[in-house]
Every structure is written in C-alpha cells, then in structure tokens.
Amino acid sequence: MSKPLRVGMIGYGFMGRAHSNAYHQVNYFFDREYRPVLQACCARNEEKIRAFAEKWGYASYETDWRKLIERDDIDLIDIGSPNNTHHDIVLAAAEAGKMILCEKPLAMNTAEAEAMVAAVEKAGVPNMVWFNYRRVPAISLARQLIDEGRIGRPFHYRATYLQDWTIATDVPQGGAALWRLDAKVAGSGVTGDLLAHSIDTAEWLNGPIRSVVAKTETFVKERLHQETGKVEPVEIDDACMFLAVFENGSMGTFESTRYARGRKNYNTFELNGDRGSVFFDLEDPQYLDYFRYADPETGKKVEDHLTGWSRIHVTNFEHPYMDKYWVPGCTIGYEHTFINALADFLESLETGQPVQPDFRSGLRTQKVCDAVLESARTGQWVEIT
Ligand code: SOE
C-alpha cells in the first residue's frame, strides 16, 4: 500500500519545473512506499501560479507561502523560490512540523544557514538540499571508485564550473529569471550559484576543505534593474577562482564564471591520487573517465601495456541508479538527477536514515562559500571552522 506524501511546492521557475517533474516520475522508476501527491503550489503572481498548477497537475495553488505552510493537508514543503526566501520559509515550515526540501544554496549566508539547521533539527523534520549533481550516475560512480580505494592517496582536486550567459552588457539584473544577478536576492554570484555545486561535490568526494584563498571579479559593473527600472551597480561576483587545502592534505583549485564564451554548463572535476584518477564533465554526463595505475587491493602498480585512461559509459545495470531505467547503453539526462535525489529522500523516510545532503551538509557548503567571499574581500587565506 503506498502512502501519499502531500507536496506544497514554492516557486514555478526552472527548479519548480525540475522538482515537479521528479514528483511525477519517481514512482514509475523506483519502488517506494511513499507516493508524492502534487497537492498545492505557491507563488506571488496569481496568473502565473494558476497556469503552473494547471500545467503540472497541482490540485490547488496559494499566493502566500505562509498560507501554504498553515494548511494541514500538506506534509512536505519544497522551496524552489529565490535564495532570499529560503530562511523565513524554512523556519516557519519547521515550526509547523513539515518535511522540507530546499534548493541550493541553502541560504544567503552562514548565519541564516545555521538558524535553518537549528530549526529543522529542533523540529526533527526530514530535510534535504537539492544538490542534484551528486545523483548523476557518473558522479556517484566516482564516489564508489574512491570508496573502493581505486584513487588511493589524493593529491589534487580540480573543479571548474563555467557558463557564458551574462556576457552581454544589456542583460538586465533582478526580477523573474534574472534574480541570480541581484545580490540582494541571490546573496552572491557564481560563488553561491555554481561553486556551491562544485564545493558540495568536492567535499562529498574528497572530504572537508580546511582553508581557502580566493579572487573574485565583476566584469560588468552596472546593469538595468528590471524591477526598479534604474541602472544600478552590480554587486554579485561574475567570476571566482579559489585555491583550497583539504583536511586530507590534498590541494584544490576551483574556477567559476559566467563569462566563458561557449561554455554552457561546463561543470567538471578531476581527482588525482597515487593509485588512479577520475575526470567528469557535465556537458558529457554519461561518461566517467578513469585512469587505473594501481590495484586497489594491493596498491601495486598494474603491470600492463594497456594502462591508460578509460572512458566508462555509465549506463550499465551495475552502475548507480541505472538499473531503475532502461537497458545498458540507453542514457538518462539532467532531469533524472532530481528523480534520483527524490528517490533517495523517499527511501530515507522508509529507513529512518537521514538522507544526504541534509541541511547540516548544506551549512558546510555555505561556510566554504562565505570563506571564499571573505578571502576575496581581504586577500587572506581563510580557515573553515
Ligand atoms: C544557473 O544558470 C544554473 O541554473 C544554476 O542555478 C543551477 O543550480 C545549475 O545546475 C545550472 O545553472
């Protein structure tokens, strides 16, 4: 017998669609006790949220998130609205005893994130941050190879997250779809929006980052603000580069920008260890590149004239999540990373084991982001405590 899980979705943009799709699809592919029911969605603009509710099959809609949280026919609040709304919604939803899923970054800053963690932990409500890239099968496979000892002692972690959609100086800031360029709404630029993904993946694969030194740049200093109608200073970081030292002694470089002409969603990482290396590129997401140097059991060099990089097409039944979809060789896509994340969340409700990344894990990422921004301001190395 399936148990209904009545969802209240806040936001109707890119993430509202990605999450709603996951609610629709998850039980077709994963056998789970809980069955999401699209009970209500919510946004301030009534015309838009009504149209969204009709299109995605929500039974009702609200225009005030406080009303949504007050409803006793909602079990789970999903936050897909801009970053500056996350904190207040989480505090109210936790107080009301709702389960909470929140888009990344968890918060505008560490202080907010700490209050959000305290709220969900005090209320004892299940929670998760939608760092969906952990659920790319190739990235999960990278984690498996690391756990199996195939990388060995890590030396270098190298991440890039490059896009190019804000190069034109006449792209406005603020308002629908462009709030990511408005620091008052987004908190930061590429650091919170893109590097948060890279940091979450890096810490998941390679453990905690101990200290960072960073440099940021804002290439376009003023943009028209869609809501005020005025040309206003741009306060977000358009690009950010930082060096990192991990607790395990390895070194990291991280680069992110929205000014890499031709790069659309170029999210890559490479990890080099004494026994092997892995490389991943989100623009080619079905593949994980693996270099095998040594046997994971013995640590001895593999004496083999075929030693070299191998490209693993991560679509076999034995690869993470792939037995839930099609037959080997048939690929899945971006939207499935949200389905996989949701499936893991639903499983955690059955097992009682908290799902990762939870809000406490999201707080870690927030601390690293804040340390990066602080370092960019001061020019000093910053320790993450
Ligand atoms: C920004 O363009 C963005 O949409 C991010 O906000 C998402 O988190 C990322 O996955 C894709 O790019």
Bound molecules: alpha-L-sorbopyranose
Q: Decide which structural class fits the backbone.
A: alpha/beta
Named at the architecture level, the CATH assignment of the largest domain is: 2-Layer Sandwich
Strand and helix order: EHEHEHEHEHEHEHHEEEEEEEEEHHE
* Terminal residue distance: 46 Å
Number of helices: 10
CATH homologous superfamily of the largest domain, by name?
Answer: Dihydrodipicolinate Reductase, domain 2
**What's the pLDDT, averaged over the residues?**
97
Major β-sheet profile: 9 strands, mixed
How would the global form be characterised? globular
The name of the CATH topology of the largest domain is Dihydrodipicolinate Reductase, domain 2
Question: How are strands sequenced across the largest beta sheet?
Answer: 16-15-14-13-7-12-11-8-17
Poorly predicted regions: none
Number of domains: 2
Q: Determine the fraction of residues in helical runs and give it as a percent range.
A: 25-40%
The beta-strand count equals 17
Q: In percent terms, what proportion of residues is strand? A: 25-35%
Using only CA atoms, what is the Rg?
21 Å
CATH class of the largest domain: Alpha Beta
